[in-house]
Structures are given as C-alpha cells and as structure tokens.
Amino acid sequence: MHKTLPLIVGARNKISCWPFPGGRVDEGWPGGVAWRMQNLSDYRADRSHFLPTHSEDLSRCGLAPGDLDFIFVSGDAYVDHPSFGPALLGRMLESHGYRVGIIAQPSWGSPQDFARLGRPRLAFLVSAGNMDSMVANYTVAGKPRRDDAYSPGGEGGRRPDRATLVYCTRIREAFKGVDIVVGGIEASLRRFAHYDFWANKMRRSILVDSKADLLVYGMGERAMLEIAAELSRGRRAADLTEIAGTVYKCRAEDAPGAGANGSANPPGATGANGPAGSLGATGGPRKTGAARKTVSLPDWDTLQDKARGKRAYAESFREQHRNTDGLNADILVEAYGPWVVVQNPPQPTLFGDELDHLYELPYTRTFHPDYLELGGVPAVEEVRFSLVSARGCFGGCSFCALTFHQGRRIGARSKESLLREARLLTQLPGFKGYIHDVGGPTANFRAPACEHQGKHGVCKDKQCLFPDACKQLKVDHTDYRDVLRALRQLPGIKKVFVRSGIRFDYLLLDSDQSFLRELCTHHVSGKLKVAPEHITPQALSAMGKPGMKVYEKFRRAFEKVNTEIGSKQFIVPYFISSHPGTTLRDAVALAEYFRDQGGTPEQVQDFYPTPGTVATCMYYTGIDPRNGKTVAVTTEYAEKAMQRALLQFRDPKNYRRVREALEQTGRTDLIGTGPKCLIRPYPPRTPGRDARSGGKPAKATKPGPGPGGKPAKHPASKSGKPRQKRSGRSY
Q1: What's residue 701's pLDDT?
Q2: Across the strands, what pairs with 342?
Q3: Which residues contact 653 (CB under 8 A, 6 or more apart)?
Q4: For a designed S-S bond to 343, which of 332, 350, 453, 709 qualifies (C-beta 3.0 to 4.6 A apart)?
Q5: pLDDT, tens digit, for every residue of 94-145?
Q6: Cβ contacts of residue 98 below 8 Å, gap of 6+?
C-alpha cells in the first residue's frame, strides 16, 4: 500500500515527522485547546465529492453494497488529500475505472462495521493508518496517548492496537474467503520477522500473523495497479507471486530458487529493473524475465534461538537493508517451518510525469464532512497548503526507516506540476497566501545522488553521505532553487516556507552557497529546524550523522548570512537521547554543550525503537548490523530518564535525575555554583515533581526491554503488558 506518513510536514512537527518510521516521534503530543481546529467552515466540502463511505453514498452513486471493486479499511479518519495513502491510492484506482470505497476507523469490536459497503468484487485493502498503530496509541514510556492527529477532534483511542491484525480478523469474520491485501507503514516495516518493542520480543512477519493474502510494501502505486489488473482477470491475491513491491507466502518447495542455492527466479517473473511503465496506462504487470538471485534469510526458529538469535537477526536485517532498490535488489526468502515468506524486489522509483499524475488527481484536500461536528481532523492543517516536491532519501540516518520503506533513490515532481498545484491551493478556502512547505523526506534532495544510481541502483554497502560524502555525489541546489523562485512569483502567494528537514551537510558541500542566502532571505519563518542529533563521535557514528564540526560550520554560515541580510533568525536543533551507541557520559557531554551555548533545546526526544530501522536492530541485538560490531545500548529505564533529564538540565523537575547522572559518571565537578556547573549543590525551591517527593530521587528503576538482563515490565502497567484501555481482543 501507499506510504502512510504525510509526505509534507513541518520538520519534526507535532503531527508527524519524517524520521518517525525510524523511531523518532514526539513524546509529548499537543492536546486540548491546542488541537482545536479553527475556521472549520473553510474545510467544508460536499460528501458527493468523496469516495463512498456508507451505504447511502452507494445509493447516491447508483450502486448497491457489493458493487465496489475495492474497499480500503484504514486506521485513520478519511482525509481526501494525497498525503494520506487510502485517498491517493483510491483516487488512482478510480482514475483507472475501478469502483472504490473507504471504511475509515471502523468499530472493531465486531465484524458488523466492516460489512457496511458489502463484499468487494476484488479485494479489501487494509492499512493501520499514517502511523504504526502502536506508536499512535502509546508513548515511548508505554503510556496511552490521549491525542491522535489523524482522528476526528484529535481524540486518541479510535484505532486498535496492532490495527492491521485486528482489521484482517474482523474482515475474515464478516466475509469468508474474501481476498485481503495489507499495506501501509505498519505492514511495510513489519514485512519480515522483526523486533517488537511493545511486546519486547521478536514477532513473525505481519503477513503470517494477519493471515492476509498479499502484502504491498513501500510506495505501492505501481504494485497496486498491477494487482488490480490481475485480480480483474480472475486471479486470486494469494496466487500473485510475480509482482514487484509485494511479499507473498508459499510452500517451501514452491519458493524461488528451491533446491538450488542462489538460483534465479523463474523466467517471466517481474523484474524491477525493467521499463518503468506509466501510471497513466492500464497498469498490467511488466514481465521482463530478468534474473534475480534468491537469498535465504535466517529462519524463524533461528531468530528465536536464545544463543544465536540476536546475531542472526542483525545479519538478517543487514541483508534486508542491502536490498531496497528496484534496480539491484535480490529476492529474499524467510522460512517458517514448511512455509516461506518471499519478498519480491521493490518497484522502481516514480519520477516526473508519474508523480505529477498522482498528485494532480481530483482531491477535495480536506476531511470528510462527517467529521465537521467532531472538530475536524488536525493532521490536515499542516499538509493542506504544502507541496510534495520529492520522495526518497539518501541521508541514511540509523533511526529512520525511509531506506526500508521509500528507498534511497530520489524521485521528484516537475516544476510545472508544482506550479499547477500551487495555483490550485490559492483558490482553496482559508488560503492566506502562505505555502507551508515545499519538500519531502529531505527538502533539498531533488535528484538521485549520482548518475550510477540511475543505471545500477544505489550502492548496497556504501552510504552517500556517511561517514564521508561519496566522491560520486552530485551536489546541486539549482533545480530546487528554481522551483522556489517560481512558486513565490505566483499571484496570490506571499511567502513560501521550507519546513521539511534540510540536510545541512549536503548544503555545505555545494560550491555555490547562494542557495543558503536565498533560503534565509525568502523561505525561513524566523526559525530553521535542523537535526544534528548529538555531539560525540561515537553517538553520531551510530546514528549515521556527520560530525559536530560540520554542524558548527553550518551554524556559523547561517548566522553570517542572516547578519548580512539584516534578519534575526535562529536555528532550532533537534537532539535524541538514549539512542543506541550513546552512553550516560555522552549525555553529560551534550549537556555541557548546551551549557556553553547558553540555551536549552526546544525539542528532545527519547529514542523510540520502531520496526524497520538500523537503530532498532541495534537496540535489540546490541550489534550494529552495518558492520557486525558491538554497540552500547541504553535499556534501563533509570538511565534513559537520566539521559533525557541531562538534555534539559535547567528544568527544576530534572534536578534529582541530573545529580544522580553526574554522580554515577564521576562528574561531580559539574555540581556547584561555578560558571561551568550544570546544577547547584542543593535542589531548587521551585515546586515540581521531584521537589514534592521530599528530596528523594525520582523513582526510575525498572529495566527497559533490550539486550541483557531480564525482560522489562511495560512501564504503563503493573502486569508488564501495555495497558489496554480499548475494548476488543488483544492480538
């Protein structure tokens, strides 16, 4: 299915953030009054302009339950905007003549709500929504979230835990034998056996656990059209074994390369290095006959083995991470007893006309009118007046799953398409002349990293920017600058902001530094958000980030340009605490950096181990899958709390934890009244959680899940299981 995170968001804003699939989601989501949408009348639209959601909508279209070809089931509210997977895929299928309906956030206590549009002629298409449902429902500390930007009124609790599994179960109860295809961020990043932070154990491929017929991973537009064409010809979803960008199940003896190590897949199988084709065409499968090597991953029994399971998982993840490009990926096979899960190579990256076609389909660009009385859907606010410029990212950050989901090759829209969409935005109710963002995963990536990628795919064992920039890397901001210039010259547009992440090390590599001046002059709204993440070499190495000297060089360049143009603008840096590869001493060093800079970071995030990231593999195994070396991992709840407190050591409520951290690391020289001290010898009188505890250290002794020691009890409950405040079965 389509990627389920918004394609354009303010860099690490409170709704979502690009690195989330990599395990970084804001711990404190906004709530209450802050989430109340203003001027809801600006979002009003006629329900006849939306895809059918109820039987009354079918009647209005002259249809009856059972007449639809596909029915999407989504954990998100229905927002008809291309940043939402069901809307984008639904409009795409509709443009090819398929009849599509959407069941958004169904009541999952029984199968009844899943039957409201009848049985689809071809298949149910299931997605947990724009976020993994466990991340949407729980903070990194295991506390249930009260808020959900993708739900009406921003209210949490409208999707079940492990939503993909729950939805598939209810659909099977409602319709025996119906075809089910799963996708979205939850399915895509759980397509193989994976470490599950919330259960603190390995879980099987979600294709196995959901009992779905087929799984679509990554950006699934091409795959979905091929699936639709084959289902229309009378084939069943479980029999579709040749489509790129999909994962299927079969008996071991029927798997590609069975009986011969490393043999090619059968002739006629979809070759992801074949011609790209056009999304404007009929969408039939492309059968190139290209040979693909078959690679067997460690099987399920090995992954569960206490002695060798973690090492095996690190090896498995490395192989998965090496095979994420449609031009050079192998077929991957993972065994579960007599059955195997097979991943076909990814679909080729979409470029130019294909992306333009998708983003210019007739979206209403607002939420379904059923949500008006409930307060609207907050997630639409940031994306409604933003533009998707490109997909993919070759940044290679360890905590990010974009490599695993979108891939490292950049696919960009044309300038002409972006201008057409911008003109459309100026006509929407509520538009005040400001385009909130023009970007993607990394705003200043608008083209593949080098010419080699276009011919042979991305390098399997080499990153573009880490540990140093590749000599083949093409650094050029000309195209992106031209797009921004053209947009800000359109009638009705006052300002065009860039709020997606800017990769500052890439920007500094450009011999022409005019883009930085233009960025500061026209496209920064007072603050530019960048992500140095940490300062110590070992921490940055584990994160796959450039050294601190690079960030400092960028900071000086930014300040110089703003002085020259007479603008008072600031950098807002983001930092992660408790990331694998960081220790308590690293956190102290970072606190000293903040002390010397004279400020406190606005955004600090505890590392959140989510499926599909190098960092999560490190967290579980204690091994860096990129090189097989041991990595320091912080799993104890007490130490994680101290690391976070150090990053905001000026906050009175953090005094006790900061002091404990300094004592443990032998840095009591930082306790005192001198200019280099972080805290004073005695706790502040300012009321706070720790002050109210009567001078006792904050209670933080439970171990967190991770390598070594006993499995942790979940912080959210006494039983050790995530707290279930939602009705229904636990899956």
Answers
A1: 36
A2: 248, 333
A3: 688, 689, 690, 691
A4: 332
A5: 999 999 999 999 999 999 999 999 999 999 999 999 999 999 999 999 999 9
A6: 69, 70, 122, 228
Q: Is the peptide bond before 467 cis (omega within 30 degrees of 0)?
A: yes
Q: Nearest Cα to 18, choosing from 111, 131, 127, 115?
A: 131
Distances 81 to 138, 360, 364 between C-alpha atoms, Å: 26, 10, 7
* Residues 682, 691: Cα–Cα separation, whole Å: 11
String of b and e for 428-438 (b: at least 16 CB within 10 Å)?
A: eeebeeebbbb
Q: pLDDT-based confidence at 500, cuts 50/70/90?
A: confident
- What would the pLDDT profile of 408-442 be if each residue is shown by its tens digit? 999 999 999 999 999 999 999 999 999 999 999 99
Torsion of CA 375, 376, 378, 379, to 10 degrees: 160
C-alpha 198/C-alpha 498 separation (Å) is 35
Q: Which two tokens stand for residue 662?
A: 């300094």
The Cα 103–Cα 707 span in angstroms is 40
Nearest in space to 43 (alpha carbons), one of 528, 377, 494: 377
C-alpha neighbours within 13 Å on the C-beta side of residue 267: 0
Report residue 533 CA to chain centroid gap: 17
Give CA–CA dist 316/493, Å, rounded.
Answer: 49
702: DSSP letter: P
Residue 574 has phi, psi (to 5 degrees) of -110, 145
Q: Which two tokens stand for residue 495?
A: 């300002």
The H-or-E segment that residue 102 falls in is: strand 100-104
CA distances from 230 to 376, 595, 713 (A): 38, 62, 47
Q: Do 210 and 718 form a contact (C-beta atoms < 8 A)?
A: no
Mean pLDDT, residues 453-479? 94
The DSSP bridge partners found for residue 126 are: 73, 182
- pTM for the full model? 0.87
Rounded Cα gap, residues 20 and 313, in angstroms: 22
Least confident residue range of 73-77, 273-277, 652-656: 273-277
Q: What are the two backbone dihedrals, phi and then psi, of residue 172, each rounded to the nearest 5 degrees?
A: -60, -35
Give 100's DSSP letter.
E
CB 640 within 8 Å of CB 577: yes
- pLDDT (average), residues 669-682: 95
- Torsion region of 179: left, alpha or beta (phi above 0 gives left; psi -120 to 50 gives alpha): beta
**Strand partners for 100:** 70
Euclidean distance between CA atoms 568 and 347, whole angstroms = 45
The pair of three-digit structure tokens given for residue 660, joined into one six-digit string: 């404990």
Q: List the one residue out of 97, 79, 104, 102 whose CA is nearest residue 16.
A: 79
Return the HEC string of 40-85: HHHHCCCHHHCCCCCHHHHHHCCCCCCCCCEEEEECCCCECCCCCH
Using DSSP's 3-state secondary structure scheme, residue 563 falls into helix
The DSSP secondary structure of 178-227, one letter per residue, reads --EEEEHHHHHTTSS-EEETTTTEEE--HHHHHT-SEEE-SS-HHHHHHH
d(CA 89, CA 223): 11
Mapping DSSP onto H, E and C, the string for 471-510 reads CCCCCCCHHHHHHHHHHHCCCCCCEECCCCCCCHHHHHCC
Q: Of the candidates 48, 167, 188, 67, which has an alpha carbon nearest to the alpha carbon of residue 121?
A: 67
Other CB atoms within 10 A of residue 306 CB: 6
Residues 6+ apart with CB under 8 A from 90: 51, 70, 72, 100, 102
Helix, strand or coil for residue 438?
strand
